[in-house]
Specification:
alpha/beta, Aspartate Aminotransferase, domain 1, Aspartate Aminotransferase, domain 2, 2 domains, seven-stranded mixed sheet, 11 helices, 14 strands, about 15% strand, globular
C-alpha cells in the first residue's frame, strides 16, 4: 500500500528535535520558526512535558468518556485560571477542526438556526461544517457546499449587521488573527461592535483561537487584545505541544444535555496529561510574556529587511509580507540556511510561528539568513 498523495513534501525528514531545533535523518539541525503550524508551544521535547507523558502512559492512557477522568477536571480548572475563563465550560476533543465543528453544532442547537457568517480568507478546518466556513473552494467538496454560509470581508461591520438582521444566523465564526489567510485581523472597534451585534440578535459569537491561542500573541487568547468575551472559544494546536488534543470553551448561558456532543478519544488520559504539562510550562517559564517581548523584537528587526512591505500579527504569530512571492525564499531558507518558516494564501507572506521559548538569538539568526539569501539573489549567486 502507498500513501494517499495529498501533501507536497519538502525533501527533509525530521527524526529528532529539542526546543527550537529540528534534526533531520542526516544529522542536520534546522531552526524551527514554524512549529509545525503553531503546534509546538513549549518547545520540542520539553523535559517536563516528556516526564508527565511517560508517567501517565505507565498508569492508563485511555478509557472512554463513560467513566470519570479526574484529569479532565484538573485541566479545566488550570485552563480556566490561566485564560481568565473560570466560569466557562470545557468540552474536549482531538483537533482544531473538530473543535470548530462542535462549536458550530452547539451554536445551531442553542439558537435552533443554521446559517453561519464567516469571513473571507478565513480557515477553520477540514471537517464538514468547519470547512464549509472556510473561504477556500479548492478544499470544499459538493457535500460541504450544502452548508449555509455567508462570507464577508473583515472590518465592514455594517455588512455583518445586515446579515444578522435577517434573523436566520446561528453563529458568527472568526479568527482574531487569520492564520492560513495571511495574518489579517479585525480592528478593536470591529470586534467590540461585533460582540454587541451578536448579543442584540441572539447569535453565538465563536472565536477560533486554534492557532492564535495559548499565549502565542502575548495574551492567553488573541481576542483579549480587544477586550471582548465570546460565547464559544475553540482551541487546539499549541494546547498539546504535538499531542492531538482540542476543545471548546463554552459560556455558562449555553446549557449542556446528555448526548448533545460526544467523542471517543477526546479528553483521554494521555491528552489531558500533555495539555496539563503545557499549561504548567507556560506558567512556570512566563512564556506568554516572552511571546510578547520576542515578538516586539522581531517586529523591530524584520521591518527593516529589504523588500518588506509590512509585518503583520502579534506576539509570535507573525507574517512578513514582501514585495515578491516568497516560495523560493522559503526553499532557500530550508535548504541553504536550515530554517523552517511557513507560507499562506497570500503568496508574498512568510508565516513565523515558532515555539514560545524562542529568543532574540534565534530571531537574529533568521534576520541574517534572510539578508544573506536576498544578497545572493541580487548578485545572481
Amino acid at each position: 500500500m502507498k500513501l494517499f498523495d495529498v501533501y507536497p513534501f519538502y525533501d527533509v525528514e525530521p527524526v529528532n528535535a529539542y526546543d527550537c531545533i529540528v534534526v533531520d535523518k542526516n544529522g542536520i539541525e534546522y531552526l524551527d520558526l514554524y512549529g509545525g503550524h503553531a503546534v509546538i508551544s513549549i518547545g520540542h521535547s520539553h523535559p517536563h512535558y516528556i516526564k508527565k507523558l511517560k508517567e501517565q502512559a505507565e498508569k492508563i492512557g485511555f478509557y472512554s468518556n463513560a467513566v470519570q477522568n479526574g484529569l479532565q477536571s484538573k485541566l479545566a480548572d488550570k485552563l480556566g485560571k490561566l485564560s481568565g475563563y473560570e466560569d466557562y465550560q470545557l468540552f474536549l476533543c482531538n483537533s482544531g477542526a473538530e473543535a470548530n465543528e462542535n462549536a458550530l453544532k452547539l451554536a445551531s442547537f442553542y439558537t435552533e438556526k443554521s446559517r453561519v457568517v464567516a469571513f473571507k480568507n478565513g480557515f477553520h478546518g477540514r471537517t464538514s461544517a468547519a470547512v464549509a466556513a472556510t473561504d477556500n473552494p479548492k478544499i470544499n467538496a459538493p457535500l460541504n457546499n450544502q452548508q449555509d454560509v455567508t462570507f464577508l470581508p473583515l472590518n465592514q461591520i455594517e455588512l455583518v449587521k445586515t446579515e444578522l438582521e435577517k434573523g436566520d444566523v446561528c453563529a458568527v465564526i472568526i479568527e482574531p488573527i487569520q492564520g492560513v489567510g495571511g495574518l489579517d485581523e479585525g480592528t478593536t472597534e470591529f470586534f467590540t461592535t461585533l460582540e454587541i451585534l451578536c448579543h442584540e440578535f441572539g447569535v453565538v459569537l465563536i472565536l477560533d483561537e486554534v492557532q492564535s491561542g495559548y499565549g502565542r500573541t502575548g495574551k492567553f487568547f488573541a481576542h483579549q487584545h480587544h477586550g471582548i468575551t465570546p460565547d464559544i472559544i475553540s482551541i487546539a494546536k499549541g494546547m498539546g505541544n504535538g499531542f492531538p488534543v482540542g476543545g471548546i470553551l463554552i459560556a455558562p448561558h449555553i446549557e449542556p444535555s446528555y448526548g448533545m456532543l460526544g467523542t471517543t478519544f477526546g479528553g483521554n488520559h494521555l491528552a489531558c496529561a500533555a495539555a496539563l504539562a503545557v499549561l504548567e510550562v507556560i506558567e512556570a517559564e512566563n512564556l506568554i510574556d516572552n511571546a510578547g517581548l520576542t515578538g516586539e523584537y522581531f517586529l523591530s528587526k524584520a521591518s527593516s529587511l529589504e523588500g518588506v512591505q509590512k509585518v503583520k500579527g502579534k506576539g509570535l504569530m507573525l507574517g512578513v509580507e514582501f514585495d515578491f512571492e516568497v516560495s523560493e525564499l522559503r526553499k532557500k531558507l530550508i535548504y541553504d540556511q536550515h530554517i523552517f518558516t511557513g507560507g499562506a494564501m497570500n503568496k508574498k507572506l512568510l508565516r513565523i510561528l515558532p515555539p514560545l521559548t524562542v529568543g532574540k538569538k534565534e530571531i537574529d539568526q533568521f534576520i541574517e539568513a534572510v539578508q544573506s539569501v536576498l544578497i545572493q539573489e541580487k548578485v545572481g549567486l
